[in-house]
What we know:
Strand content: 5-15%
Shape: globular
Low-confidence stretches: 308-312
Order of helices and strands: EHEHEHEHEHHEHEHEHHHH
Mean pLDDT: 95
Distance between the termini: 47 Å
Radius of gyration: 18 Å
Structural class: alpha/beta
Amino acid sequence: MLDVTKFQGVFPAFYACYDEQGEISAERTQALAKHLLAKGVKGLYVGGSSGECIYQSVEDRKKTLENVMKAVGGKLTVIAHVACNNTKDSRELAAHAEGQGVDAIAAIPPIYFHLPEYAIAKYWNDISAAAPHTPFIIYNIPQLAGTALTLPLYRTMLKNPMVIGVKNSSMATQDIQMFKAEGGEGHIVMNGPDEQFISGRVIGADGGIGGTYAVMPELFLRMNELLAQGNIAAARKVQNAADSIIYKMCSAHGNMYAVIKEILRINEHLDIGSVRAPLTELVPEDRPVVEEAARMIRDAIHDNGMGGLKER
């Protein structure tokens, strides 16, 4: 039976790390992975939305995963998102991820064309077959993929013994409970929406995977600790602080990940480049938003008893 403890806790969704020419940087990728390892997170989710996967080549994504695995040296649980918008490339990435020794692979459904559920199931099972010894996690993000994971489709996928659960990024928190009940003992559900970390955990999620965790891991680790203590009121306070930061970051003109990467420069002296077009870079008008969000993170860390980041 699956050791679910490997998937319990805080899993930052890993960011794409670029050099000055906008290509994947091995050095910066390793630096970010080591940074998050030092922060004490449970694992990393590599190659998903936060990793700008749909704007990258197969080779880009292989390079990122290889350098993450090299940097963490087996000390973190690594989930590799391997879906591309075709089966061939997805299977190539799945086989590569298994060869790298990841703990699980994950995949969204194909996007653009609205495929019938039997075709989506075949796509996922074909990907899983390319990594036959690696657990498979379904990534449910209907607001972006255009396809929702239904219970009938999930039941079909559970016939595949390598399917271990769901990363649920639907905004309906009760979906976590639904998938948790359907999967049963030995299956996992990971909370997706960062703004719902504590509510997702309380309703049954084993852990959380989120796109803002890596810019403020202290806050999500603190929520995780408080939930383990049963201190919901204190966890809610931290969640509210994190949500305010997320709303501030989303108020910029540039893409949220461009904002996050600039905050990492300010708060952590960590340069991982910008974002890849057509994602929008920062504009000068975004500077006050970035600086305010960076300050909010430092203050929230300090106010919630986690020491403090000094402005650099």
